[in-house]
Specification:
With 88 residues, the chain is α+β, with helices and mostly antiparallel strands. It has helices spanning 2-17, 20-30, 32-44, 61-87; strands at residues 47-52, 55-60. A two-stranded antiparallel sheet has the order 1-2. A hairpin with a 2-residue loop joins strand 1 (47-52) and strand 2 (55-60).
Length: 88
Amino acid sequence: MNTINTLEIIERIGYLLLSWPVVIAFILIVYRKTISRVIESFTDQDVVKAKVGPIELERKLESIVEKGDGALHRLNQINNLMAKSRHV
C-alpha cells in the first residue's frame, strides 16, 4: 500500500513538471538573453532587425518616414491644384 502512494506521488510530480506553464517558464528562463536581444533590437535602433530561427525581419524606420513625408507632400500638391482649379 505504501508503494502505491509513492507511485501516485511520483506520477503527480511528473504531471506537474511536464505541464505547459512549467514548460513555458523553463523555455523563457533558458532563452531570456535571446528574447531580450530581440526586444532590444526592435526598440533601440533606426534599422530594426530580428532573427528568430529561419525567419529574419528587417525594417528601416528612416525610409518609412521619408515615404510618408513624400506621400504627404504629393497630397498637399494635389489639394493645392484642386483649390486653384476651383477659383478659376
